[in-house]
Amino acid sequence: MKKKITFLIMIVCFAFSSFLVYDKCFSGMSLNNVSSGDRLFVWTITLIVLIYYLRLDSKPSLVPASFSSEKKKTDDMSSENNKPSVSFKDVAGLDEVKEELKEIIDFINNSEKYNKMGAKIPRGVLFYGPPGTGKTLLAKAVAGETNSTFLYASGSEFVEKYVGVGAKRVRTLFEKAKKDAPSIVFIDEIDAIGSKRNSDSNNEKDQTLNQLLVEMDGFYRSQTVIVIGATNRLDLLDEALLRPGRFDRHIYVGNPNVKARKEIFGVHTKDKPLDASIDIEDLARKTHGFSGAQLANIANEAAIIAVRNKKKVIDINDFNSAIERVVAGLEVKNPSVLEKERVIVASHEAGHALVGKILNVDMIQKVSIVPRGQALGYVLRVPDEDRYLLTKDELYSKIKVLLAGRAAEYVVFGEITTGAKDDLTKATEIAQEMVCSYGMSSLGNISIKEQYMQYAFAKIDREVKKILNSCYDEALKIVQDNKSMLTIISQYLLDNENMTGDELDYIFEQNNPSHVLAT
Questions:
Q1: Among the three residues 328, 358, 387, which one is the final residue of a domain in this structure?
Q2: Who contacts 363 (Cβ-Cβ below 8 Å, separation ≥6)?
Q3: Which entry of 107, 256, 323, 444 is 20 to 30 Å from 143 by CA?
Q4: Does the annotation place 194 within a ligand binding site?
Q5: Do you know which CDD domains this protein is assigned to (predicted)?
Q6: pLDDT digits over 416-451, tens only?
């Protein structure tokens, strides 16, 4: 549009110039008598418009923002600003991962001894595992330990609808990395560009992946450039990206164990005023299955709660509230729950607590009927030790505890409610894993991949229902046999809203349940 308007202005200027000359000539004046001022004015305007037209022609209007911002991005990547100060001292836990990375760090810092042996530096390291486990922090620590340039990019930054933009960004990133070697190129959420290709697709994302593969293969031996990728979904990545020579090492970064959680809490509480009674090891035991990011969030939430309550130190109550905040959600201050619903919730949560205590499934830390988030009540359970293997009976017991809330509703009120929605979802997931992944059903020792489940849906559905129904019947029997205990627990919740694990233990000590407690 701009080019058309400019061209039109040029025609008008030429026409005006011709008219001026024509008018001068036919009014009895010679061409030499046309004033130089008129000529200068017309030709100046014409020249300005011509230059503007040529500049428009030299800058194509297609994706100007995408391409013009690339140089600015590169210029902003100063090597001085990309030298992280993070080291392994700032990374708590993950000892085995740090040990694995020390070889790469030593190779960068002392490459001569490896070159003498003919060893080649790994070109790529892939971190995979659940979110919030410290993958980005580890990459920064590698750069900090080697004093290398750290270049960060997210996989989504390379995904564009315009052809060639993603590939150009990959080239720009690696040109910068080679220029500032030794350098660490960290690509977060690499599955955004590295997902599996198929024979029918040839889109922009595939071209970007092809460029990444070429760049990872094309490093000069004299340049020390290491690519570190991070993903939560290793199964989505293309085989060409995972092969040796590109990502030579695949390192799983999982949730921390109790020892690592204790160290992580130590890092995130070292600059916080803690009450002398706080036991970091006890906090670590209470937070089984939490990621490093969640632990950092708990420490920060505890500090915020202490400030809100105008305290000078952070005590155990602040940490307990922070754990509940992270696990169950925000507490509803003025809940508008009907008294009838409140009674149902108390019986529901009492059912979970009763069956969980009798079957000895995890350690019950707290039972509450105070609404948090979308939940009207909850039972906070944590294992008393880190577990990596579960037996078939233990999985059955977990399902029984999940279905005990609905069983308690039926025993007390003779009907069931929608309150068991989340429980049913979790129970079904466990049962489906038992059938399809663990070989713990009458289908035998078989593992069924997700893409093949649709072909055996009827058989899988039948086995899952069999597991759930048998667990529900057992949970219902336990609740019926201990109805008086259920009433005591639910009444305590109605009177106090909350019940600690110690208070639940005391109730069991004062009463004799029909089922013998598991040892």
A1: 328
A2: 381, 382, 383, 384, 501
A3: 256
A4: no
A5: RecA-like_FtsH
A6: 999 899 999 999 999 999 999 999 998 889 888 887
